[in-house]
Amino acid sequence: MEIRSTFYVKPKSSPEREDFNGRLALKNAAPLWNVLGTIVPREPQTRTVPAIWRYDELRPLLMEAGRLITAEEAERRVVILENPGLRGESRITQSLYAGLQLILPGEVARTHRHTAAALRLVIEGQGAYTAVDGERTTMHPGDFILTPSWAYHDHGNPGNTPVVWMDGLDIPIVNMFDSGFAEHHPDTMQPVSKDEGDSQSRYGSNLLPIEYTPQRKSSPLFAYPYARSRETLDRLHRGGPLHPSHGIKLQFANPATGGYPMPTIGAFLQFLPRGFRGLPYRSTDATVFHVIEGCGNSQVGKTSLSWQARDIFVVPSWNAVTHEATEDVVLFSFSDRPVQKALGLWRELEGATT
Ligand code: 1HN
């Protein structure tokens, strides 16, 4: 990688130094002074680039995948969204994976679990379910659904329309630690042991089981229905005020702790009224946005991205972003913010300059 930082200037090369570097290389060693500015940048120097995935362009390809391979053969029929700066790495940002998953009427995606945690944001279709911990949740467009680390999960579509959702996983984080495990459940469809809505009643009604002690690091509420969060945005919009960069922006919460829904992934929902022109904002958590409603454009660093409902776009770490809404807009987004905060790394800045 080219050194763009002014924090540290790479020393000049000389035949003697090159010879020395060559002899270090033979011993699996290298001089720090040639890489210091790259590995310790003055500010983030990411390979992740601003990018957009237009649903209108990807949907026909996803439906073609539906003819090419079954959910059974694929295990999960997913088209990975790869950042153009990170091709071949199965990631949309340095730390996160994203994909578009299709499940056709009558299909099931068999039960498995893995240490990587997942979120789903439903994009289109009705009548599919995802099952976690013995409870099925029916998926509706805009619903935000969690699959915690090491939780058995399967999907099925007993309805009669194709169902598509965005998957977001912390795979690059898990793999950075080489802590990935996965296994199948003995049953294709895990046994249903709870009524639909059980976790919603138990944890999602401003009440908790008496003396509740969290059983895992993720939210015990694994579905956040869009109908409820949309109504919240609507009420808050009527009450104002708007944040100058974010409009009305909320974070999804673990009702048992008030913290993020998962230890590795934070998720957010925001409303931008028609005509909104935000001020620039930057943060160190590269963020994946999905447009639930409306259209507009975002200036991301030097790149202008115009988007409409169902598109997905990425704002890399420390890139200034400015959102504009040409209609009333609802944006869902997710990032590794909980990890950065836990490690004391997270920074944000309002305004375009450092
Ligand atoms: C996975 O288990 C799902 O359960 C989706 O729907 C995408 C990408 C990589 C690894 C596991 C799912 C995945 C995945």
Throw out a few tags for this protein.
354 residues, alpha+beta, Jelly Rolls, six-stranded antiparallel beta sheet
CATH homologous superfamily annotation: Jelly Rolls
- What is the count of distinct domains? 1
Q: Assign the CATH topology.
A: Jelly Rolls
Helix content: 10-25%
The biggest sheet amounts to: 6 strands, antiparallel
What is the CA-CA span between the terminal residues? 22 Å
Order of helices and strands: HHEHHEEEEEEEEEHEHEHEEEEEEEEEHE
% residues in beta strands: 25-35%
- Morphology: globular
Instruction: Let me know the average pLDDT.
Output: 96
Per DSSP E runs of 2 or more residues, the count of β-strands stands at 22
Q: Which residues form runs of ≥5 with pLDDT under 50?
A: none
- Gyration radius from CA atoms, angstroms: 22 Å
Bound molecules: 1-hydroxynaphthalene-2-carboxylic acid
Explain what the structure shows:
This protein has a single domain, classed as Jelly Rolls (Sandwich), CATH 2.60.120.10. Helix content is 18%, strand content 30%. It is built from eight helices and 22 strands. The protein is globular and about 75 Å long. The model has no long low-confidence stretch (mean pLDDT 96). 1-hydroxynaphthalene-2-carboxylic acid (1HN) binds at residues 76, 78, 99, 101, 109, 114, 118, 153, 155, 167, 169, 171.
